[in-house]
Amino acid sequence: xxxxxxxxxxxxxxxxxxxxxxxxxxxxxxxxxxxxxxxxxxxxxxxxxxxxxxxxxxxxxxxxxxxxxxxxxxxxxxxxxxxxxxxxxxxxxxxxxxxxxxxxxxxxxxxxxxxxxxxxxxxxxxxxxxxxxxxxxxxxxxxxxxxxxxxxxxxxxxxxxxxxxxxxxxxxxxxxxxxxxx
Length: 182
Known about the structure:
The protein is of the alpha+beta class and 182 residues long. The chain has five helices and eight strands, in the order ββαααβββαβαββ. β3 and β4 (76-85) form a beta hairpin. The relative contact order is 0.16.
């Protein structure tokens, strides 16, 4: 992954029809704790964390790093979308040297089923394609997560391989870089 440096990060807020994608702020702390403490959210990502542990561990401004977008609806954080280098020790890579950009997302259960994840992820992928043209994006999810697999397809990801990780079968897909219009 070409690093998200000072020329690309932080971006101006990204506005979609219903959402604002922006960098994290102190007012998002409670929503971050709700997100990581939610048993529903933790189902396919290794489980939730106890709220008491999170209260002591989550910084005043959580998620304040390149590649982390807070997803806001009507002035309130409802989730997050991330772009991170895929760790070289993990299975699933496009390049021998690894480091591909991996899309991730988590949304509060109250935001599920409304198309927010698709809208937010598409906006982040468009931003990334403009900021770092020619870079593919990868995504992995448990094969048991039918909703995530459907969203991956809608976003243009195609299956590259499957493997076992974290005690479950994982789906690894790639979204090729956007081709500039002629």
